[in-house]
Specification:
With about 325 residues, the protein is an all-beta fold. Helices cover about 0% and strands about 45% of the residues.
Length: about 325
């Protein structure tokens, strides 16, 4: 169970913000495989969580989603908004963590002295700064401007080194073709010296499909597929939306969820794909963790579409 202390402190007046309300959609499903604790009981599985609707000039927690409420084994996920001069402090204890600066500038200290991080004003304004920290690491982040931070934690006892990943150190590429073109930003790829976490940003032009062809990663059968839980955290401009289809999982359901700005969709099992509403560019931040640090997936019968692709969407890349 995650008992890590997390605090958002306002320098003046002093303020502590803990465990805010959050809206969840939950589906109950009986897991058929009884060979592990993960698959041996009636679980409540969270599929979508909505951010708290804070006023633009209000700081606090936008999302607070510990793994116990998500109903899975690996990841806890939080999104924080800091106003200028507010400070966020935490200790990773028995977890590794990644802190992705969604927007704004701040001063971060993880035991190596204060360092200025952040550059983009929002996720559509450039590439990210990300702080990776192993277990037993103290972190403080003090906002210089209004700053939003996505934090993901995974249980870990590995003895690793913290690292600040600058925008110049991430790898960007274009994937897919035609109206399934998107931009991939590899932030913490499998080759990065972490224990379990992987982090990816994806930019999808309005009207395009992403995570396509639909794929899954819910069976540990390396090298062809590994069992990974996955978070999709959405940011969408101008009141737009995305649709995400989840099907073929252990609950036997076929569902299509509407994602708005600030929503998080949790992929427990089965195939999944995304389409951006026409006219609305879509960003999502993926966190993955599971049985191995491999991005090994199985695709369904729609994989034939690859043979029809002839070049990528000229709107890409959306960020540089």
């Amino acid at each position: 169970m995650c008992r890590c202390p997390q605090r958002i402190l306002a320098v003046w007046p002093t303020q502590v913000i803990d465990n805010p309300p959050v809206s969840w959609h939950i589906v109950k499903a009986f897991r058929k495989n009884h060979t592990s604790c993960r698959n041996s009981r009636l679980d409540e599985k969270l599929l979508i969580a909505h951010s708290v609707n804070l006023a633009p000039q209000q700081g606090g927690a936008l999302l607070h989603l510990p793994r116990e409420k998500a109903g899975w084994q690996w990841m806890s996920f939080y999104v924080h908004r800091l106003l200028p001069r507010q400070k966020f402090e935490t200790v990773t204890e028995s977890e590794e963590a990644a802190f992705v600066i969604l927007g704004g500038t701040c001063i971060a200290n993880w035991g190596q002295g204060p360092i200025q991080v952040g550059k983009r004003t929002n996720v559509f304004d450039g590439l990210p700064y990300t702080l990776y920290t192993p277990s037993q690491c103290s972190v403080s982040i003090s906002a210089e401007t209004t700053c939003e931070i996505a934090e993901c934690r995974v249980p870990s006892a590995a003895k690793l080194e913290p690292k600040l990943i600058a925008p110049s150190e991430v790898a960007t590429s274009l994937r897919g073709g035609g109206n399934a073109s998107r931009q991939i930003v590899d932030v913490i790829p499998p080759a990065f010296p972490a224990d379990k976490l992987m982090v990816i940003e994806v930019y999808t032009p309005g009207g395009n499909w992403s995570s396509y062809p639909p794929h899954k990663h819910d069976v540990h059968n390396p090298p062809s597929e590994v069992d990974l839980d996955e978070i999709y955290y959405y940011r969408i401009r101008r009141g737009g939306f995305a649709l995400q289809r989840l099907y073929g999982g252990e609950d036997g359901k076929d569902q299509t969820l509407k994602s708005m700005d600030g929503d998080a969709i949790l992929v427990h099992s089965g195939y999944h794909s995304v389409v951006a509403g026409p006219g609305y560019d879509v960003y999502y931040l993926n966190f993955l963790a599971g049985s191995a640090r491999l991005l090994a997936v199985s695709e369904d019968h729609h994989a034939w579409i690859r043979s029809t692709w002839n070049g990528t969407d000229p709107r890409l890349p959306l960020v540089r």
